[in-house]
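step: validate -> pass
step: tokenize input -> pass
step: predict -> running
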Amino acid sequence: MASDQRKPGAGQLSQRSSRAEVDAFLGRMKTAPAAAAGGRLIFAMDATASREPSWDRACRIQGEMFLAAGAVGRLAVQLCWYRGFDEFRAEPWVTEARDLLARMSSVTCRGGQTQILRVLRHAAAESRRERVAALVFVGDCMEEEIDRLCHAAGELGVLGVPAFLFHEGHDPVARRAFEEVARLTRGACCAFDAGSADQLRDLLAAVAAFATGGRRALEEFGRRRGGAALMLTHRFAGR
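step: predict -> pass
step: emit ->
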């Protein structure tokens, strides 16, 4: 159970994503299903108590991702989160960063078990109604049956929705599950911590650009933004 008690290793920074891991993340994006212009992206977050210290940071980074993607094209984002006892919420779709940030800032973290299966099933249901370009998930643990998660991830993969998972912390069970979900959806998994905020922001912005206009928009975003974003998109393009 994700509770107010600190997990082993809490309070210590996890290892930052290595260059090899970032390369692997972007390499997986190469094989992700092509996104249509003006894409829809589901941004799902674990809001259980263990993530409270990093919630505000994640809100800020996500807002910057949204603003960066807005320069590429129109992006619709749906915030999903879970917490407490069987509490799961999918917010309305929004196209303005301030609307999404307002919803995120109103959420408080509460102790409870993970509900990643509900996230995957929700993403599949949404994509059946109208194409979802990508699912982004940020979490630190997994307390569910991995076989059920893999089955739901496989269904999401059949629908052509890649899942990009960002793992906070050291939990090896969560890491294995996240990597399996990424593999089955043709998405990618990457670690992050408080020391890799800039890297996380650039990776999220890359995913958003991809969801908005596909690989061409991703490369254009990298050229315009420069710096780390340009380096990341160059590696994505295999240059």
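step: describe -> The radius of gyration is 16 Å.
step: cleanup -> pass
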